[in-house]
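so i finally got all the pieces together for this one. its two components total, 573 residues if u count the protein bits. some of the lines might not be protein, just check the labels. i wanna see the whole assembly predicted at once instead of chain by chain like last time, that was a mess tbh
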Amino acid sequence: MPYLFVAPNMLIFITFIIWPAIRGFQISFYDSIDGRTFTPVGTGNYKAIFGDPTVAEVAKNTAIYVVFYVIISTLLSIAFALIVNEQKFAKGFFRAILFLPVMLSPIVVGLIWNDVLDRKVGPLNALLQAIGGGSPGWLVEPKLGMMAVIFVGVWVHLGFYSIILLAGLQGIDRSLLEAAAMDGATRPQIIRTIILPLLKPTTLVILILATIHGFQSFDFIYTLTGGGPLGATTLIVQYIYDRAFQTPIQYGLGSAAGVILFMIIFAFTALNFLLGKKREAI
Amino acid sequence: MSKLQERASANKWSSMGGKKPPSVGTILRTTFLLAMTFVILAPVLWFVLSSFKDATDLGARPPKILPTRWAFENYTEAFQMYNYTRYFMNSVFVTSVATVLTLLINSMAAYAFAKYNFRGRDGLFVMTLAMIMIPLQVILIPIYLVVSSLGLVNTYWGMIIPAAATPTGVFIIRQYMLTIPDELIEAARIDGAGEFRIFARIVLPLCRPALAVVAIFSILWRWNDFLWPLLIAQKEELYTLPVALALLNGQLVVPYNIVLAMSVMSIIPVLFMFVFMQRQIVQGIAQTGIK
C-alpha cells in the first residue's frame, strides 16, 4: 500500500528529473543539432566550454553577476531586516512593501524595469536630466546593462532574503538583549556584538541560497535585456536555453554546460545541508 | 518592546515614549524605509500608469507622469483584438489543475513517508529531498528531449505533470503529518476503513494548514512560472500569461501599450494574494526557505 502512495511522485521524479539528468550527462559527450542523431565527441564539449571565447564571455558574465548579486543581496537584506526589525512605526507596512517584488512575475518585473530604464522615454533618465545629469543608456551599453541586471536581480529577491533574516532575528533570545541593555549597551553596540554574531547561521543560509538563485537567474533578464546588449548579460541558463532553441543549436554543448551548472549548484546545496546538520547538532 | 530596552534607548537614543519628538534613530530609519518604499513602488506605479497611455504619450520626451488621455482602450483591445482571454484562461487552467495534482500526489507520498514503515522508505525520502539539487535549469536540454519524445510538447499535460511532484511540498506535508497521532489511524483501521479512505477522509482534513501553505506556493509559482511553459507551449494558443508577455513583447505584432495592459492585468491575482495571504506566505518562507 505505501508503495502505491509514493508511486505517482516517484514516477514523475524518475521520468522527468532522474532520467533526464542521466541523459544529459550522456548527451554531454555527444554532438547533436536536432536531438535525434548524436555523434560522439568524447570530452570535446567540455573542452569547448573551457576554450570557446563565447562561453568564456558567458562564464565571465555569470561570475560577475553572481558575485555582485550575492554580496549586495546579503548585505542589503541584513540591513533591511535589522532596520525593519527595529522599526516601530508602520513596521507591517514596510515589511509588506519590501516583500512585494518577490510575488510579482519575474517576466513583468523585467518589463517594468525595461520601461523605467529606457534611455529616451524612461522616467529614471528624465529624473537624471531634471537634476542636470546625462541620459545613460542603461540597457544599451554593456557595462550599464550588467549593472541594471544586478540591480533588478537584487530588487526582486531582497524581500525574500530579508524575510528569512527577520525570522532569524525573531529567534534571538530576548533575555540576552535585555541583559545587555541593562548593562548599559547602546543599540548599535547590541547589534554589532550580539545580534550580528547570532545571525551568522542565517546569514550563511542567505549567502548559499543567493548563490544558487544567482546561478539560476533567467526569467527577468529575458524581458529586461534579453541577454544583451551585445551578449553582455547572457548568463549560463540563457546560454543553455539558447543551445536548444537558438542558432547555433548544439544539444551536446548545452547539456555539458548543464552538467557544469549542476556541479556548482550541487556543491552549494550540499554545503547548505552540511551546515544545517551542524546547526542542528549545536 | 520591553521596559528594559526602552530604558536603554531612553539613555542613549533619547526617548521614544510620550509626546516627546521621535528619536534620531526613528527618523533615520523611517526616512530610509520611505526611500525603499519609493524605489519599490514607484517603478510599479509608473508601469501601471504607462498601461493607460496611448502610443503618443508612451513616446513623449520628456515622459509624462500622467497620461494626457486615459487610454482605456489598451485594456479593451487586449480582450477584443488580441488573445488576452486565451492566455489568461491557459494560466488559470494550468495553475489550478497543477496545484490540485501537486496537493494530491505530494500528500500521498508524504502520508507514506510519515505513517508507514516499509522497505526503502528512508531511501526514497532522501531521494525525494535530493531532487532539490537538480533544478530545471540544469537539465533543460535533456528534459526537453524527454518530454518531446513522450509527445508532451504543446500539451497542457506537458506543462502540468512534469513539475507536479515537488520535494518541498512532500517535506512540508510530511512534517505536519508526523504530528497526527497514530492512534487515530489505528482506530479507523479497526473500524474497517480502507487505507485510501483513511488518508482522504481522516488524515487530509487534519493537514489543512500544511496543504494551504503548499497550495499558496504552488499557485504563486505556477502563475509566475516562465521557463517551463516556455519550453512546452510553443504554439500561441497554449501560451500562459508570462510566456505570452515575454514573447509578444519581442514582436511587433502586438503594440507595446497592449502588452503593458496585459502585464498589469496579469499581476492583479498575485496582488490579491499579496494582500490577503501575505502572512501565510511570509511564514512559509521563513520556515522553509523556499519560494
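The two ends of chain A are 38 Å apart (CA to CA).
The beta strands of chain A are 30-31, 39-40.
anyway lmk what u think
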